[in-house]
Structure formats: structure tokens, C-alpha cells
Write a structure and sequence with these properties.
Elements lengths: L28 H10 L5 H7 L2 H8 L4 H6 L4 H17 L19
Helix pairs in contact: 3-5
Length: 110
């Protein structure tokens, strides 16, 4: 019997269909619960479908030459995880509290 694909690859088994991790944030528990519900973070399959993660991963799973040298057990799963993380950080910027977002005004560039 073939082992099911684990992690965030297609064919995720129910035991691995875990809520998305926001990491350490400064949100209150109530705010985190609101954000989790608003962005489907406790339903990763819904999150992936809404963001077309599977379709996008298929077109981004080709390894670069330096990645081919290092190898990858599953390039599509790797692409899917990177896309999911990027979508999460885009939708919920406070999920990356250690990342500083720099905003410049036009007068700051002179």
C-alpha cells in the first residue's frame, strides 16, 4: 500500500490537515480567533482552494539549476508550501511580527 503524501502536498490526510500556523504574534487571543476565522486558517484546504495554491504550485514546481543540484523529494509540495506561506503573510501581515514592513513616502526618497 502506498504511503499517503504528508505535509501540505495534494492528498493531505486528515491527520495532517492542521490549522495554519501564524507563529508568534502580538494579537490577543480574541483577535487571533477573528483572523483565523476570517482567513480560513483553521481550514487549510479552503485556504488553498480560495488562493488556487494547487494550480499555482504546478506552474512553479520546476527546480532552478542550483535547486536541481541540491535535489527535492517533492518539488510541487515544496512550491505549494512556499506559496501558502506567502499567501498567509500577504493576507495576515501581522503573522510575521519579526518582519518589518518599510513604507516610504515620496518625500523620503529625495
Amino acid at each position: 500500500m502506498k504511503e499517503p503524501v504528508i505535509g501540505y502536498a495534494r492528498g493531505v490526510t486528515p491527520r495532517n490537515d492542521e490549522p495554519l500556523d501564524l507563529g508568534a504574534t502580538e494579537m490577543s487571543p480574541a483577535e487571533e480567533n477573528r483572523v483565523r476565522a476570517e482567513h480560513d486558517l483553521d481550514r487549510p484546504r479552503v485556504f488553498d482552494e480560495r488562493n488556487a495554491v494547487d494550480d499555482r504550485a504546478e506552474t512553479r514546481s520546476t527546480l532552478l539549476p542550483e535547486e536541481e543540484h541540491a535535489g527535492s523529494a517533492d518539488p510541487e509540495a515544496q512550491a505549494r508550501e512556499v506559496l501558502r506561506d506567502s499567501d498567509l503573510r500577504t493576507e495576515v501581515p501581522e503573522s510575521a511580527p519579526d518582519t518589518m514592513i518599510e513604507r516610504r513616502r515620496p518625500e523620503d526618497t529625495a
